[in-house]
Design goal:
Strand content: over 45%
Largest sheet: 5 strands, antiparallel
Order of helices and strands: EEEEEEEEE
Number of strands: 9
Distance between the termini: 49 Å
Number of helices: 0
Radius of gyration: 19 Å
Length: 108
């Protein structure tokens, strides 16, 4: 069957650390995909891959604002997001590489 891996696994670990009246929230998630084919002829294959995402957030007492740092695809896995083939051409695209950033929120 197309786009049907034999095995997928997801695990997530979340930790809340109170610091006085403030808190730090961390999340680590792991996703494993055993690989699959994009077409019925088994010509275009996505090999097995793992994705790791990390997130840490600081929020002071009252949750009026927060700041966070995050990284998606921490180990820069190459994942084929889509593919198609015809008798004349084969094409596809990749999912995002490693992304990281900072974010801030204000709640009112």
């Amino acid at each position: 069957m197309e786009r049907a891996p034999l095995l997928t696994t997801t695990a997530q670990l979340r930790w809340l650390l109170p610091i006085g009246t403030d808190r730090i929230e961390t999340t680590a998630s792991f996703y494993h995909n055993s690989g699959f084919y994009f077409d019925p002829g088994d010509e275009i294959q996505q090999r097995a891959y793992n994705l790791v995402n990390l997130y840490v957030k600081y929020a002071p007492h009252g949750d009026r604002w927060s700041v966070a740092a995050w990284i998606n695809n921490a180990f820069n896995a190459t994942v084929l997001g889509g593919a198609a083939a015809s008798p004349y051409v084969m094409g596809g695209f990749y999912n995002d590489p490693r992304l990281f950033g900072l974010s801030a929120s204000v709640h009112y």
